[in-house]
From TrEMBL, chain A:
Subunit structure: Component of complex II composed of four subunits: the flavoprotein (FP) SDHA, iron-sulfur protein (IP) SDHB, and a cytochrome b560 composed of SDHC and SDHD.
Domain of life: Eukaryota
GO BP, sorted A to Z: mitochondrial electron transport, succinate to ubiquinone; tricarboxylic acid cycle
Protein location: Membrane
Main location: membrane
Keyword Phosphoprotein carried by entry: no
Protein name: Succinate dehydrogenase cytochrome b560 subunit, mitochondrial
Keywords: Heme, Iron, Membrane, Metal-binding, Transmembrane, Transmembrane helix
Organism: Champsocephalus esox (pike icefish)
Summary of the function given for this chain in its UniProt record: Membrane-anchoring subunit of succinate dehydrogenase (SDH) that is involved in complex II of the mitochondrial electron transport chain and is responsible for transferring electrons from succinate to ubiquinone (coenzyme Q). SDH also oxidizes malate to the non-canonical enol form of oxaloacetate, enol-oxaloacetate. Enol-oxaloacetate, which is a potent inhibitor of the succinate dehydrogenase activity, is further isomerized into keto-oxaloacetate.
Pfam families associated with the record: Sdh_cyt
Automatic annotation (TrEMBL), chain B:
Record: residues binding heme b: H101
Membrane topology: Multi-pass membrane protein
Species annotation: Pogonophryne albipinna
Keywords in alphabetical order: Electron transport, Heme, Iron, Membrane, Metal-binding, Mitochondrion, Mitochondrion inner membrane, Transit peptide, Transmembrane, Transmembrane helix, Transport, Tricarboxylic acid cycle
Subunit structure: Component of complex II composed of four subunits: the flavoprotein (FP) SDHA, iron-sulfur protein (IP) SDHB, and a cytochrome b560 composed of SDHC and SDHD.
GO CC aspect terms: mitochondrial inner membrane
Annotated family: Belongs to the CybS family.
Binding site for a ubiquinone: Y113
UniProt-listed GO biological process terms: mitochondrial electron transport, succinate to ubiquinone; tricarboxylic acid cycle
Protein name, entry field: Succinate dehydrogenase [ubiquinone] cytochrome b small subunit
Length: 170, 158
């Protein structure tokens, strides 16, 4: 918006000086780039130590909102878990079956094992299914609000069902 | 204000490419019609640079976005592949696809929450290091240990 105003203002300046007949190499009005503007905003924001208005604490949570941040949370969590696994593979001395046997020897009850499997399966399942929902959106489909809620509930339902199936039946 | 909000939502969708720190073209392409009667030189100059702006600009961001979707779909296909036909090829493909998908995903998270040129550079460097180590570790596991497909199978057989 401000950029547009600056555009017209600068055009006006050029017009008034046209009788000089001077070539302006970059006569096209150019404001700052988006990146520069963003950096300026954040620099000023941090310098002035501005207090932040309440947002997460006051805005009513909705199903799409919660699903979105859960999608991000599962993504970051799964990525972290993979990195930890990879680091462990590089650093720890023994082999994978060795560490599995260690866990086996803890002799935890069957339901706790099932729970642990569910705990592993659910983030994968939810992230995968919501990821498919995102790809559907990327195709440009399913943006109407009822459709968003419908696909959302489908993802939640399918996630729970598949996680339970994988944890207790496989 | 609305323009800034829209611009930030564009960034969330992955306009910021992986290693490309170039500037985005936010130059206004609007030239009001009543200025067409200006002296020839000035009009030509404005039109020339306007044409330059319209044509130049890299496709890196757009290609990055498409790349993200391609890797996502590849990873989706690798799931059933790992289950129905586990083999070293699937193990290494899984390692690569998982690492790249995670790298780009965390990259988007950092783009959303980290601000300021220096901080962005530092966190992206840290992420690059983490992803490299992750990929190295997964490949090492595939080579020297049972491999990813077998590992998951063993874990689940408990």
């Amino acid at each position: 918006m401000a950029l547009l105003l600056r555009t017209f203002a600068r055009q006006g300046v050029c017009l008034s000086r046209q009788h000089y007949g001077v070539f302006y190499r970059h006569a096209a009005p150019m404001g700052t780039t988006a990146k520069e503007e963003m950096n300026k905003f954040w620099a000023k924001n941090n310098k002035l130590n501005r207090p932040m208005s309440p947002h997460l604490t006051i805005y009513n949570w909705s199903v799409p909102m919660v699903m979105s941040i859960t999608f991000r949370g599962t993504g970051v969590g799964l990525s972290g878990a993979i990195s930890v696994f990879a680091l462990a593979a590089l650093v720890l001395p023994g082999s994978y079956p060795h560490y599995l046997d260690l866990i086996h020897s803890l002799s935890v009850g069957p339901y706790l094992i099932g729970l642990a499997k569910f705990g592993l399966a659910f983030p994968v399942s939810f992230h995968t299914l919501n990821g498919i929902r995102h790809l559907w959106w990327d195709l440009g489909k399913g943006f109407r609000i009822p459709e968003v809620y419908r696909s959302g509930y489908t993802v939640i339902g399918l996630s729970i069902i598949t996680s339970l199936a994988v944890a207790f039946l496989l | 204000m609305a323009a800034i909000v829209r611009l930030s939502s564009v960034f969330r969708r992955g306009v910021k490419p992986l290693f490309y720190q170039g500037t985005l073209l936010a130059r206004p392409l609007v030239v009001p019609h009543n200025y067409q009667e200006q002296p020839h030189q000035l009009t030509a100059r404005i039109h020339a640079s306007q044409a330059l702006n319209a044509g130049s600009g890299s496709k890196a961001a757009s290609l990055h976005w498409t790349g993200e979707r391609v890797v996502s779909i590849l990873l989706l296909a690798l799931g059933p592949a790992a289950y129905f036909s586990p083999c070293p090829a699937v193990d290494y493909s899984l390692a690569a696809a998982l690492t790249l998908h995670g790298h780009w995903g965390i990259g988007q998270v950092l783009t959303d929450y980290v601000h300021g040129d220096a901080k962005i550079k530092m966190t992206n460097a840290g992420l690059f290091l983490l992803s490299t180590v992750t990929f190295a570790g997964l490949c090492y596991f595939n080579y020297n240990d049972v491999g990813l497909c077998k590992a998951i199978a063993l874990l689940w057989s408990k």
